[in-house]
Amino acid sequence: MGRRRGAALRRPAAVVLVAGVPLAALVASAAAAVPARADGAAAPRRSDMELGRGPGLGFPLRVLDGALRRSSVNALINSSGQRRLGSGCGGAAGVPSGSRVYCWDHQDATTGVWVPQGVTSVSDAVRGERWRGGGRPLLVSWHDQGSTRVTFVNPDRRTYRHVLLVEPALADGRVTYRDIDVHAGGIAWYGDELYVADTRHGLRVFDMRQIFDLARSAAGSTEHDDMVGLHGGRYHGHGFRYVMAQVGSWRYTGGSAGPRCRGTGPMRTSWLSLDRTAARPVLIAGEYCRPSAPRGRVVTWPLRGLTGDGDRVRPDWAGTLPADRIQGALRTHGHWWFTQNRGEQRGLLLSTRRDGSGWGRVTHRTISHGPEALTCYRGQHRIWTVAEHPGRRALWGLTARPCH
Q: From which residue to which does the signal peptide run (predicted)?
């Protein structure tokens, strides 16, 4: 279900928006240290990463809520028709020994259309690490050429379900929704809200209470993989049973980021993570930059600002990354990890701390192919990531004691 049959889509007419090994072993395994860069670059300006609240979506959300039946997270992860997690993918993906590994079914493991990116879990969402109803899901974001989905993995049943992300809109005076065409390089779940990285603009916000079950809605349809939104009086979602509606956004007040890393101005939001171990929880974001570009930046925003009633949020810290080609980053108890892409070679996990003058000694360990964003599952003492390459895919977690 939820498969795309071709590149051509039937979309609503022109629309107007109303609007995731113990530390000692990790360090010991490092064959070399990666020096922190000291290139004299100016410290990033926090003002470049200031966020402003995007347009409201209250009206179309109310209409959708009246037309479609909502689903809870617990009902979604326990519903019928789930895909089953497979096994045996760790070797092909190059996952380090001792890791916990979840494998997709054959279709999702090999497709070149959908690509996994961000990772978060119930450990980010709530301190007790169990969602209402007892579920313990991990979430993974995927992009294709025009759409975005989030996968809810249920480790207790070894199953998973894809959910299409959609943006409420108006078309010809009627409320509909459309595809969300972003890279979704990072996601972070906090309370009821799910933050999704929007590379050029900032953050898109979703709500766990705004998941619609098209199969159980009189006005919904799970047919027609090529249709999304309102068609003929029924709401479609490319054949997906569940769609999750965007409820808001945070956009850079200085405008959009450029197509390439510039080192100044609004940051390219390549990945996200969440630090619950800080005195005041923060959302972490950063940018993937190639060696030929200025070094990427990393920023933290206070979650109390993002979840409050204000219209602007300024970072409480911003810095320059210790390496290029960073696919994801995570901080817990002052300890940082970064995934580094190396093309067809297995990726690296960098590990360091901040000191008074910047990054301390950076060590590295070879990990899986194509490692992406990172998240800490505190109760497991594991940091999780997803290997993205077709045929070498895995959702996997490595023991790391500072993650608790």
A: 1-24
By DSSP bridging, strand 228-231 and strand 138-143 are: unpaired
Tell me the pairing of strands 220-221 and 234-237: parallel
**Mean of the pLDDT values across residues 360-365?**
96
The pLDDT value recorded for residue 233 is 96
Average pLDDT over residues 111-133: 97
Contact between residue 165 and residue 205 where contact means Cβ atoms under 8 Å apart: no
Among the listed ranges 13-22, 59-68, 263-272, which one has the minimum average pLDDT value? 13-22
Q: Report helix, strand or coil for 183.
A: coil
Tell how many helices (H) and how many strands (E) occur in the chain: 7, 29
Size (the chain), residues:
404
- 47-68 pLDDT, tens digit each: 999 999 999 999 999 999 999 9
pLDDT digits (tens, 9 = 90+) for 278-312: 999 999 999 999 999 999 999 999 999 999 999 99
Distance linking the first and last C-alpha atoms of the chain: 37
Supply φ then ψ for residue 163, to 5 degrees. -130, 125
Q: Who's near 135: CB < 8 A, 6+ residues apart?
A: 73, 74, 77, 78, 122, 154, 156
Q: Which phi-psi region, left, alpha or beta, contains residue 327 (left: φ > 0; alpha: ψ -120 to 50)?
A: alpha
* DSSP H or E segment with residue 106: helix 106-110
Mean pLDDT of the chain: 91
Residue type, 90: G
Helix (H) or strand (E) holding 91: helix 90-93
Domain ranges within the chain, ordered by starting residue: 23-399
Burial of 231 (0-12, 13-18, 19+ CB in 10 A): middle
Distance between CA atoms of 272 and 20, rounded to whole angstroms? Answer: 8
Q: Where are the alpha helices (DSSP H) in 23-78?
A: 23-29, 58-67, 73-77
Q: Which among 136, 161, 162 is positioned nearest to 149, based on CA atoms?
A: 162
**Alpha carbons 352 and 67: distance in angstroms, whole number:** 50
